[in-house]
Write a structure and sequence with these properties.
By secondary structure, this protein is of the alpha+beta class. Helix content is about 45%, strand content about 20%. The protein folds into three domains: about 60 residues, OB fold (Dihydrolipoamide Acetyltransferase, E2P), CATH 2.40.50.140; about 60 residues, DNA polymerase, domain 1; about 45 residues, Helicase, Ruva Protein, domain 3, CATH 1.10.8. The protein has a five-stranded mixed β-barrel. A hairpin with a 5-residue loop joins strand 2 and strand 3. Helix 7 crosses helix 8 and helix 8 packs across helix 9. The longest helix is centred in the last third of the chain and has 14 residues. It starts with a strand and ends in an 8-residue tail after the last helix.
């Protein structure tokens, strides 16, 4: 099993990156959108936790910058009718923590926002996996009716992907106290518009 890949980021195409190892082997690794955004520029070193999925039509190596996201990906593959493409879509659109919270909270509406996952698939995912993530630590989401939840809904309405809206609001809350959604929304928009260091491509 290929558990990790470390080397130089040689190329990227869509959701697939090529990591050239020190031994001269280049691994094509498919990653969620969030991981793709956090990877360094081409030519810089990086390391990914990987999961090799073997199917009749080929072998695919999937990569994650956090071990917990790989664990979540592995659990998602346990659900009947859920292959790596749907698991990757969940992590790309919702992120690992939000995916787990949605499954544990039986939030069909959130899961159904992911392309390829309708209501029936979301219900099956909840039925089969709601008790499979007890050992995976995830941060609590915004309380229902809270300013954070309202800010998150506003960012979704502005076109932010669920995972990006969740991360932006979480960062805004961490940055300092805010008693109303308007303050959180403004702060979140300022944070996402500020270029991140080390991730420029």
């Amino acid at each position: 099993m290929i558990a990790t890949v470390t080397g130089v980021l040689a190329d990227r195409s869509g959701e697939t990156v090529v990591i050239a190892t020190d031994g001269g082997v280049g691994y094509a690794v498919t990653v969620p959108v969030g991981v793709l955004e956090r990877l360094p520029r081409a030519g810089q070193r990086c390391s990914l936790f990987t999961e090799l999925v073997v199917r009749e039509d080929g072998w695919t190596l999937f990569g994650f910058d956090r071990a917990v996201d790989r664990a979540i990906f592995q659990r998602l593959l346990l659900a009947s009718g859920f292959g790596p493409k749907l698991a990757l879509a969940l992590l790309s659109n919702l992120g690992g923590e939000r995916t787990v919270r949605a499954i544990q909270g039986r939030d069909v509406a959130v899961l159904s926002t992911v392309p390829g996952i309708g209501r029936k698939k979301a219900e099956r995912l909840i039925l089969e996996l709601s008790d499979r993530f007890a050992d995976i630590p995830v941060a609590a989401g915004p309380r229902s009716g809270s300013a954070a939840e309202e800010a998150q809904r506003a960012l979704l309405a502005l076109g932010f992907p669920p995972a990006a809206a969740d991360e932006a609001v979480r960062s805004a809350v961490t940055a300092g106290p805010a008693d109303d959604a308007a303050t959180l929304i403004k702060r979140a928009l300022q944070l996402v518009s500020t270029p991140k260091t080390g991730g420029t491509r």
